[in-house]
Fold these 3 entries.
Entry 1:
Amino acid sequence: MKLTVSKFAQIADTTVRTLRHYRQQGVLVPTEKNEKQQNVYTIKEFKKFHNIQVLKRLGLSLREIKDYFEEPEYSFEEMIDIQEKVLVRKKEAIDYSLEMIDRIKSINDVDRNKELDVEISMLLMNLMRFEKVQRDIFGEYYSKEFVNKYFPKDKSKQKEIDKLNMNLLNIVNNAVINDYSPNEELVQEELKELMLHSPLKELSIETEETNEELYEKLEPYISLLPNEMVNFLAGAIEVLLESQE
């Protein structure tokens, strides 16, 4: 078998552009020419092409494939073991991303006529990304029962918390946009109603020192929120707590 690049592309079910890219990268370079001095692909390149497809399926880049063909650092068995671990990590990352998308979409399921606010949704998704570390931090200061309520592993309960957090972010964002004060009656009524359904109503810090220590550990994640929202929320909650004393 001696085929020009276009004929080989048809047989291999690929494109001329792909083959030229492989050649430029030094992954699949034809070594023979025909009577017209055109590069031709033989059965050797055909086999190598399909080996490349297998290695790509395993997650290797063209550079890694080239290195494997030229100077393999690992045996084939070792390479498979390494790629298995890489693919498992990628699968975990994809599964987590899909779960986060599902959680955001489920919030919108409550009111299909209301379009999700992009900025607020991004803020919530950023907070979701760091749930595990925040769960661990809260676990140092609060009971396991409270931590499990605020960071539930049960998906249906988790989505309920997501909706409460989204509502809280919307309340604060709306207040900031409209230049409300933290003691605005409407804001306080909305916060009070939200807190009735939130595990946060059970929050209590024993000492000011503990409060400062907790805030210091949470500060990197709190900083994901705009300063004006953080400051407004702190003021509004302070007013709410004072009114309940």
Entry 2:
Amino acid sequence: MPKLLSNKLGVIQLSVLTQELTDAEKSAPQDRLAKASVLMNKQYLDDIPDGDSTVKGQSDYGIDKIYDEDTWIDIEALRHEIIDYLDEEKYYLFPINNGEVISDVSLRKILNAHDQVLIKMYDGGWTPKIFLPAMNGGNKTIKIVTNAGYQTRVYYDKQEVVLNRGDALKVTTRVKWHRV
């Protein structure tokens, strides 16, 4: 993903993210782009000039905000959704056979060829258990995201993590797995 521009606060602007999304989402559903378009086309009344080439806040005009708190929450949630989507583009997508356990052997084979692996589950593409292999060095990352109706249990370094619909787990290793 190319370096993204951000505003003075270091927050990547929604308009910049949608430009990246246009390139990345050519064959994917356009839901994120449509949501962004609706949010970016809402009029924000702080953009009203006061006559001397400056801009005053909305309170100076005695008008209500058009961007209410819910809109700001929607904008922030969509920003994070787009950033996560663009981030996933750099991962190798692990193939899932519905209902089959993902063994440490199969994951090790993939991790030998790829530094970043994404396991993405959904109804009809789910696994009950994932065993992460013991790793000796290397900078490896596994991101597990589930939208499946069934639970998935992830085992690594003598730990068990239970994932439900909507959950995500990201682990990285230097000498052993660390939850991020």
Entry 3:
Amino acid sequence: MSRERHMSGGGLGSPALRAATVAVGILAAVLAFAAPPDAVQGEAQRLMYVHVPAAWSAYLCFAAVLVASIVFLRTRSARAAAVARAAGQVGLVLTALTLASGMVWGALAWGTAWVWDGRTTSTVAMGLIYVIYLAARAAAHGRRSRTAAAWVGVLGFVSVPVVHMSVVWWRTLHQSATVLNGQGAPPIDAAMAVPLGAAVLTATLVTGQVIVALSRRELASRAGASETASQSSPTRRTTADEWEVT
């Protein structure tokens, strides 16, 4: 087995994990369609089973950027840098999905797709922060610029609690938080909470596997480049971590 194939790890997790993810996803879909519609919002409320898992998974991605960036600053590990970059990429996609699903939900439930309230504005700001982070990572070529990019990943996480608490701190059209609202039991009926939990679990499993797959692919690509450089210059040995240590 080549070093590149070994580092790539074979894609999206083990077959058992992929099968479990598919099973939970099917269960979540069935439960979401079987759940009763909201008494006020009607069928539009079913978008919650997409919107909330997307937002939750985006938060997790940016938490992963935070942790991996701290590890990188302490160890200069290429693996940590790859995880941070992959998590940022996935988190940005999920932020876009959160905004898009929220627009559709708002149009159906409230008659407007976009309002520059606290939640929407802070979510857009969070997305822009991680656009800047990924741009800084892409442009970083020296030790100092890579360190600066990692600090953007660390400090950028401040935007996550701001987004989550925006519905508490500012007047907003957006409803209060469905989960993690600081009020004990979530204000949601069990018939809706169970499918929502299954949807959140599915999104979490998929997100984690995609991050791992992307980070392994980046490491494999860099390992292949290092091997090519070593073959072209026998007197110079390179490692997968060299690009971060220098």
